[in-house]
Amino acid sequence: METDSNPPSEADHDSVDLASTPQKGLDDMTSPPKLRQKLACDQCRGRKVGCDRQEPCSRCIRMRVHCQYTAQLRPRPKRPRKVPANPYEAQFDELSRKLDRICKLLEDKLQPNSAEGFSESHVPPTHSTASLPASVPSTMMQMQSPMAPTEASEPEYEGHSALSTHTAFASNLLKNIAGQDAMLWHSNTPSGTSSTDAISQVPGIANLPMPSADMAFRILRILKEDPRMQLPWMMEFESIDQFQEYIFRVYSSSHPTAAEQIILLAAWVSTMPACALVVVDATQKAEIEAQVVTCRDSLDVALSRLPLQFPSTFENILALTMAGTHYVYRSRIKLAWIMNCAAARMAQALGLHKACLQDPETNIATRRKARLFAIIFSADKALSLRLGRASVIRDEEIPVNLRMLLRGVNTAPSPIPYQWLAFSHTQGLVYDQLYSPRAMQQTPEVKQSVAKALLESVETLMSERNEVNEDFERKARVAFGDDLADLYKGANHVSQLALICLIYHGVAPWAHRSPFYEEGIPLAREALVEHQHWFSLLSDYGNIHTEIYLRWALFTSPFIPFIILLRDVVQTSEPSDLKLLGALIESIETMRESFPDISKQLDLFKPLYEIASNFIEAKTTDISDISTINHGSP
Q1: CATH 4.10.240 domain extents, the chain
Q2: What segment(s) does the record annotate as region Disordered (predicted)?
């Protein structure tokens, strides 16, 4: 019999099955269709094949296996709908969530390692009264600025108007005069690096201690309500309301920028000592004074974290300007110069110098830019003369008439006295026309004519009065009283005399004594006499007034009266002048413990005074011995 080698197909199976079970096929055709399952059967899901989801499915029928449905769809839980009580509450919540996402994206992008800008140094503050760790003592707090060189491979350049340069000239003069006694010279010569700012590295601190929110608003209330605080303690702000804006920013944010922190800390350091003077309660006064130390240390740490590159924004410029003012208060002149130079470059990059040429009376933002540029310009000229370096801002960048620079600025509630700006501008001219490298090549006749013009401008400023100056003096008398106001006025006069002496000193070389130079000796003597008078009155007042006086009188311009009178003393041996020099040294010695930053700047005066004193004593003894021998001879 012949057999078929081909296996039956699936259709054959179906036909065989239907033929073998005619009743079942008939029942299937006549029975109503069953509902399809939502999921495939277990057999089809296991084989990963298609399933028609009938019960049983056609594939299981053909394969003659048991068709079973065990998997079931899990019911999706219903989301509860939260009905807001206020129809706008849902929109507010959505906006809040979007802002949170934006802040998170910004925080992820602005990491400290990217070195993109000032805002990268996000240092969340700790609004408490906690102090810095013991590893960073407050009395020895020194910082390392990334913009300052940390390797002393070469000495920094200082021009001919710098105080250290004049000290070197005086040292050479005394060395030539007292050269016979080598032991006297080497034991008293000041070190060339004794007056430089020590820069040490401090560990970075993530959480900067700050005054508590309660303390912050207490100080703010004093600044607003006490009439003695109406004097503008922060010239960078037009009013207390602008300062209040930064208080709200820092204390309401968990991630304030480094610029906002520096602005607020510098403002606290500037205003808290004055607030401590007007507080009557001894406990509150001690608490405020403790917070001053905390804020000063935190500010040093924050400034040490500044990146090398950051964008030119108004807040960054304001932070650098206030940092420079802080270092002037601390008598760290080189660091103040670094900060102010960075602020000056950023201000010009941002176009703040052009805001002075516009009409800022009706635009507060333009007026604030012009005000900030005026403060930077003033500090730039003063510090350039103080260190003997060229200023960053050229005179071509400002109006010819300086009053135009303050035209719109002084429409603010807190105006800037014109004399301050003009005096700083004159300081810049003194360096450019008498002490710059090109000016040093001029003949004595040309220098003398230039000096006379500068002296006339200074004398005009000293005698000029205007409404802004009188208003400022009136506020000073309300804030300090008549005695302290007169003291500050005297400090300003001492500083002006020092600038006049510097002009006289820039004409005559050290090797000659011209008649024009001789005119400056009485002025140098007058400056030291006035300093002795006003300094004797400081013992009745607090440390803050002593610090302000010393900074204003002795550090606004290089204190050349000491050098001029010292030069005259070693040639004339005048005991009264030597006594004036000793009084200056004594006043510095009394402040050494209270103000180490100030005293170290003038430590170089003491060795020079001791050398001159010993030389005059030896000279007087020799003359006395010769006179005795002459009288005793037959």
Answers
A1: 35-68
A2: 1-34
The reported pLDDT for the residue numbered 630 is 52
Nearest alpha carbon to residue 408 among 351, 451, 365: 365
Buried b (16+ CB within 10 A) or exposed e, 404-430: ebbbbbbebebbbbbbbbbbbbbbbbb
Can you tell me the mean pLDDT for 143-157? 41
- Please report which helix (H) or strand (E) contains residue 213, including its range: helix 213-225
Give the chain's mean pLDDT.
73
pTM of the model: 0.67
521 with 565: CB under 8 angstroms? yes
Contacts (Cβ under 8 Å, ≥6 apart) of 346: 312, 316, 317, 320
Q: Give Cα separations from 34 to 28, 41, 55, 59 (angstroms).
A: 10, 15, 7, 16
Please tell me whether residue 209 adopts helix, strand or coil conformation.
strand
**Alpha carbon 565 to its chain's center:** 37
* Domain 35-68 is found in CATH 4.10.240: yes
Q: Could you give the CA distance from residue 492 to residue 488 in angstroms, rounded to a whole number?
A: 6
Percent of the chain with pLDDT over 70: 66
Are residues 124 and 254 in contact, defined by beta-carbon separation less than 8 angstroms? yes
The 10s digit of each residue's pLDDT in 194-203 is 433 333 333 3
H or E element in which residue 191 lies: none
> What single-letter DSSP state applies at residue 207?
S
H or E element that contains 42: helix 42-47
| CA 365 – CA 363 distance, rounded (Å) | 6
Local structure of residue 431 (DSSP, 8 states): I
